[in-house]
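Appendix B. Chain record.
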Amino acid sequence: MGRKAKEVLKDLVLMKSTSEDDLRPIVGYVSDMLKSLGLKPQYYGERKYPAIVAQHRKGGVVLSGHLDTVPHGTGWKFEDGRCVGNRLYGRGACDMKAGCTAILLAAEELAERDVPFSLCLTTDEETTMLGAAAAAKTAAIRTAPAVLVAEPTDFDIVVKEKGLLQFSMMTKGVAAHASTPALGDNAIVKMLKLLSKAEDLQRIPKNPNNEMTMCVDTIRGGTRINVIPDECVAEIDVRYPPPMSTQKVLAALRKRIGKKGYMIEILHELGPVETDPKSRAVTILKQVIGQGARVTSVPYATEMVMFRNSNKTLMVCGPGDSDICHCNDEYVDIRQIDTAVRLYTEYCSRMA
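Structure tokens predicted for this chain:
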């Protein structure tokens, strides 16, 4: 299996699949693999960024992953597709073409054994997740005993994800010549005063996985060094645990900075997700992996959130280390793919 895992993963890694790339080659590659197994891939979402859903018999576990990646970046020591020992390097090797490789190879095993299963592979997870939202409406996902997202977790079982709120905050002022600041009203100074009032919300908590974090990540204001700025915009990213909501996050902010003197625009939001850690689906997965597997939570969002209105039994578990996602010299240990294939095959068999 190791050689095949290496071959498929290298093929996928060498196919560029950011939101700016032509995704037809990688969609065609995956579709051809599925058709060779006797499956009939169906396509959902936007035509340019399709979600691929294929089902073998009804009522099986859904194995889910995304084929798209973030941009490559510069400063790499290893070229994409290079193998050093058991590591294969390249953008997307860990996040999450390793998981997709494991899904495809597990599908081969499961189809041969005639075990019910479905798979969902998307191409816009790193941007909009609209493909997963469209795929979530299919019977394959709605009726599945569980949806397992194969994002890298080093085979820990993630049952809880924090919610996401991204918003902009704008302050307005009055422009004037910098030599006569009394004639103006500095929008940047206004913004700094507001952000300082919410300083406690921006502190890094002791347990970031289970507590809210708030980060001011961009700030724009002013036009020239000798002009009092009449506008300032800060973009803020918040990750919050259940049972918090967007409304509760904004209420906490307003409690500190007041309700006047600024404007807020919500840019993007995703609710938190949580699966019962004592559910049958989680218990069986833990048995398959081994009692050493941790049942845990993460501070980031995956496509698990897009399935929550269609299926209540959602988990993330896959090959690779999440700490090296989106980093230079991203890699995965190919042996973990073989492990994932074995685990997914056994899990789907037991859940069937």
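Further analysis of this model is presented in Appendix C.
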